[in-house]
Write a structure and sequence with these properties.
CATH topology of the largest domain in chain A: Rossmann fold
Shape of chain A: globular
Largest sheet of chain A: 5 strands, parallel
Oligomer: heterotrimer
Largest interface: B-C, 28 and 28 residues
CATH superfamily of the largest domain in chain A: P-loop containing nucleotide triphosphate hydrolases
CATH architecture of the largest domain in chain A: 3-Layer(aba) Sandwich
Order of helices and strands of chain B: HHHHHHHHHH
Radius of gyration of chain A: 17 Å
Chains: A alpha/beta, B mainly alpha, C mainly alpha
Number of domains of chain A: 2
Structural class of chain B: mainly alpha
Structural class of chain A: alpha/beta
CATH class of the largest domain in chain A: Alpha Beta
Strand content of chain B: under 5%
Shape of chain B: elongated
Distance between the termini of chain A: 40 Å
Number of strands of chain B: 0
Distance between the termini of chain B: 28 Å
Strand content of chain A: 15-25%
Number of strands of chain A: 8
Helix content of chain B: over 70%
Helix content of chain A: 25-40%
Order of helices and strands of chain A: HEEEHEHEHHHEHEE
Amino acid sequence: MHGNTKLSKRLDDRVITHLSIRDTAIRRGGRLLFDGVCLELAAGEACALTGANGSGKTSLLRAVAGLVNLDGGEIGFGAVDPADARAEGLHLVGHADGLKSARTAREELAFWGQWCGGGAIAAAADALELTSLLDLEVRRLSAGQRRRLALARMLAAPRALWLLDEPLSPLDARWRTRLSELMQQHLDGGGMILAAVHDPLPVATRSLELST
Amino acid sequence: MSRLLALLQRETALAWGRGGGPLVAVGFYAGVATLLPLAIGPEPQRLAAIATGAAWVALALASLLSLDRLFERDFEDGALDLLTLSPVPLELTCFIKCLGQWLATGAPLAVAAPVAAIGLGASLDLAPLIFACALLGGLAFAFMGGIGAALSLGARRGGLLTAVIVLPLFVPPVIFGGGALDSFANGLPWRGGFALLAAYAAMAVALGPVAMAAACRNALS
Amino acid sequence: MTWAPAFLSNPERFMAFSRWAAPMFGVIAVALGAIGLYLGFTAPEDYQQGQTVRIMFIHVPAAQLSMFAYACLGVASFLSLIFRHALADAAAQAAAPLGAAFTFLALITGALWGRPMWGTWWVWDGRLTSVLVLFLLYIAYIALRASMDDEAKAARAGAILALVGVINLPIIHYSVEWWNSLHQGSSLFAKGGPAMPAVFLVPLLLMSLAYMSAFGSLWLVRIRGEVWRRRAEAAALRMAGT
């Protein structure tokens, strides 16, 4: 709740309000993952990305983030230049959280908050109930706590598009509900979410199934 | 700018802790410097003749130590993904990472280098030049080494592969630094070799990040 | 030469061209090599080096090829990196082991020549050492490619390494020269024309051309093999139904 007013305020002057994935194809190691995938996502919308293991959900998320090259089609961010959108307009939370086990949660949160151009560290930690854990080293955190830290990192720097790879999986029931609330707040503030999921995503306004 | 400082701080802290950090590098360096007289024989004249060269080669080897983890950890745990999602160009990020590596392992090794060389029998007058050469050489080793580390991302046998890639690229700095030290020890003009070492380090610092960024993008894709 | 990559970038055209060019270069190599060796072995003894001068006809072209093959590797890598062209990558991949083989030959024949000439198999002289470092660069390239599972990534990583090597080679060469030089200077391209009597020069030039043709032929054959291998793998993937 606490981070939310700031988040929506920042989002107002973000120009990225649209994601369009047009006719994309990705090939990995000579194998076609998917072909002809299309999606239009506007501000305030969330899309649940589903499909069997190996169907290319992670690759599509990484392609939106510009980490994986497309073998066909294109990905656009409305009027925003893709390079700018990827530099300052989106967050990616993957299976690997990029947190260093020997550093404290506070150090990691502070660094990534700054790296992503934000600084609402206290509010972000508060929103994910991490305040009492901040001085622990990351290796002492449980899987769920680590995931919450990764999510707090995302809240610390407001960016319009969230790319989430199975965001719910390591979380317990209470935190799944809480994360859904946070996602809903992000959408209400004009944000967008593209999340790869196996379980239903409560906040989803649409869904996309990948299959070859 | 605050981003870059934050990254430098993180990289130095991580390099300081990475695989034991400077302690392991300096320990390895001391170990090699101890093995040399055991293999060559304890005669002071013989040792003194090779002291600077041996200290110099051991330095090149020691700077290989933590190199393979420079990008690998961030690559494996996803941090490299997040580092690219930033207004900071990946080239600059790679530059800062190597700078952190240099601060955390190159600088402690540069302090250890004169000690090792003098222990092997080099003259005390050499100490300042050895320190300066080790600092500059460490810069070249870190940035050329970073290319090898970035190229072996996603490869099987990463660590050993990094060494195989990097050692041929270490030839010029080893020659220039060794040449300057040898000339100084023999009372010959040494500035030429030192200037060449500085030039090579400058080239490594300028070109290394471009190659590293290209290699990282390739590994991530 | 700029037309050559453009013309050959079409795989069909390349396959059609190399189909006859590879054996043709092979025939030229054998013919020139036979004449060159004959002339080389019937040439008079050198007044300084005696019979051992004949090693030159095998050694010098191999040393030239070791550099030439790396230049080919560099150009092919550049094209593959910039244009992401699969054929350029196949050419780079095919050139590396050939270059390594010629470099190895240059090192071995150099050692065999050094033994009678300098009284030692190996001296740490400038040229020998820079050829040795060149050999290490080839090994690094081959090792890097071999240890990557994803071929597209292996191709790009290899290309980056090859280009880093191209930038470093002159520096390595210069640094090693600076370090030490007791190798005899190049006598083929000395100032004021070749400083070598025609009886040696003619067979040496013939052997150089023969080596060059042999490299051209083997390179084309290897690229063809690489193209076929990739087609077979693609077909296998298709048949596996993925």
